[in-house]
Queue: 2 jobs
Job 1
Amino acid sequence: MARSALLNVMVQAAFKAGRSLSRDFGEVQNLQVSLKGPSDYVSQADKKAEDVIRRELLKARPTYGFLGEESEEEKGTDGQHRWIVDPLDGTTNFLHGIPHFAVSIGLERQGEMVAGVVYNPVTDELFTAERGGGSFVNDRRMRVAARKTLTDCVIGTGVPHLGRGKHGQFLIELRNVMGEVAGIRRSGSAALDLAYVAAGRFDGFWEDGLSPWDIAAGIILIREAGGFISDRSGGNRIFETGAVVTGNERIQRELMQALKRPVE
Ligand code: 2AM
Ligand code: CA
Ligand code: CA
Ligand code: CA
């Protein structure tokens, strides 16, 4: 597996942020935590990790734009390229001592995702992809799962957060999907959920109310692993709508249909 110089920069930034997160995870009870909104926590760990990543990425490519969850967007002078970064995806898990969280770094060129890295510092699993080069977990090539029918599938999702999203609508969708699949999982890290779809661990995934930094890296991981990822209606307006549905070609289509089914 040959990584481009740019993907290497992203990987090194993710490792460095991962080390910072691991240190803070070991002393999570001492971290300063504040609320951005209802159920929307942010800690020093999130901010420190984002600073590390921004510094590393902009050192390598000073003209690129930078969109990170914890800071004001920097437009950059380049106009074509933008880093899209979630320094800690799964903050709620992190703050509760649950070892399931990740760093997510995506690179967009002219509105298209061209490279992505998702790194879980606890398991030391590194998910990487770049356009045309395939998707990898550590050094192993990833492919989405090949299951052909929803009945055999394990599907991930995210539950709308307090004060956000339509909880009633979600319950209807959950009931629809529950009736058609082998199992449902809810992990608390959308970035890892998408990496798991790319790795063929989850057969599919859907969630609403997401932000570009939750999904940017995951989009390219899934596409390079042969998967399909779209907005609710099968289109490409993922960042605009904050909604994703994904799986292999067939499962993604079946999942979209199941989500739309009216309740009897
Ligand atoms: P975060 O941990 O980076 O905030 C889990 O379903 C996803 O929702 C994660 O990507 C998580 O990202 C995000 N999330 C957690 N709390 C949220 C909130 N209050 N509002 C919006 N998104 C949230
Ligand atoms: Ca957050
Ligand atoms: Ca996130
Ligand atoms: Ca985050």
Job 2
Amino acid sequence: MSLDVEWALRWVRLSADSIAEARDELTELDRQIGDGDHGANLDRGFAAVRTKVDGLEAENVGDVLKVVATTLMSTVGGASGPLYGTAYLRAAKVTGIPELNAHAVVALLEGALEGITSRGRAEVGEKTMVDAWSPAVDAAEAAAAAGASPAEVLEAALAGAEEGARSTVDLVATKGRASYLGERSRGHLDPGARSTVLLLAAAAEAARG
Ligand code: ADP
Ligand code: MG
Ligand code: MG
């Protein structure tokens, strides 16, 4: 299965499905250490994205990612809107090519992480979505260097994100709304790390065809 514009469109639709299905789960996670709106924020955003890409005349993966970026920025709000918006925007800049090879997939993921860190200034260990994205990028880089296919790079990224998201449970938040709780933020999964896993799972699934 090639990682072309059709893949990007499948990724978007599967993301919207998955976020809609996980809306209550994300809400509950954010209720524990935030303000309980992460599920609603992302569901609103990805529902809008789904409508936007319907019938979109996109030439390449980058075109699709740019539409995702601008739509998320204008519909999601909160901390995660600008963060995910910038992630997709930076991801789009490095993928103006018709079909992604393994290194282009890595570049896409690196772009996303770079967007999130340039916007939110969080480092690994601060209990944010960066704790899922960073190991995802590391795992993707390692897989590509070992000769993995583009789809295998996405599977590696997903596994890295899952492990990274799990690691947020034991962390104390020092960025974002959860940081107001201090020590009481420990023992809970970060909502943005969880939504990151869902989005990367959708990317990997779209590549399975
Ligand atoms: P808000 O906190 O404004 O209500 P959301 O609930 O939609 O926004 O998103 C919360 C998520 O955003 C957190 O779980 C965390 O993963 C992420 N987040 C918050 N601040 C930052 C930051 N500075 N850098 C990276 N991610 C962050
Ligand atoms: Mg919130
Ligand atoms: Mg909020």
